[in-house]
Design a protein that fits this description.
A hairpin with a 4-residue loop joins β9 and β10. The protein is globular, with a radius of gyration of 27 Å. Helices cover 15% and strands 41% of the residues. It contains two helices and eleven strands. Strands 1, 2, 3, 4, 5, 6, 7, 8, 9, 10 and 11 form an eleven-stranded mixed β-sheet that branches. The chain has a domain of 118 residues: PCu(A)C copper chaperone (Immunoglobulin-like, Sandwich), CATH 2.60.40. The protein is of the alpha+beta class. It starts with a helix and ends in a 7-residue tail after the last strand. This is Copper chaperone PCu(A)C. Keywords: Signal. Pfam families: PCuAC (PF04314).
Amino acid sequence: MKPNPRGLAAVTGLLLLAVAVLTGCGKDAAAEDAPAEKATITVTDPWAKAAEKGMSAIFGSLVNHSTTDLAVVSATAEISPLELHEVVEQDGEMIMRPKEGGFAVAAGATHVLEPGGDHIMLMDLAAPLGPGDEIAVTLTLSDGSTVAFTAVVKDFSGADESYEPGMDHS
């Protein structure tokens, strides 16, 4: 008996279709075990101090969701050049200065940015910041990744620190 070419083609086609369907049903073990992609650092409760001109600051909490220690090494925004600052005691006086090495955030930990402590300084405002305004900020981390967040501007009248001698904050 001679094989029917049409029947052979139909069987071959069905076999190929079955292989394709079954391949799609299989589970990729690596994909199944991989956690959902999540930002390594997030910023919670971000806010900025209202200011008519000059300088202001951004506060909030940096939360490291990863299993690796990271640091925020820089920040950018369209409204102003930004610097990472700290407030330290020097000769009995609280002064503000750039934070060497950025803000370290240990794996699974939170680093608070607050008035009178570490903060992101807006150095030369391009426009006034009024209550309710929003500032789009991008942080660069020590691993090269970036994190974007929006800080809401609000009135705040505390934490009037002095600047480190010799720093140009004009």
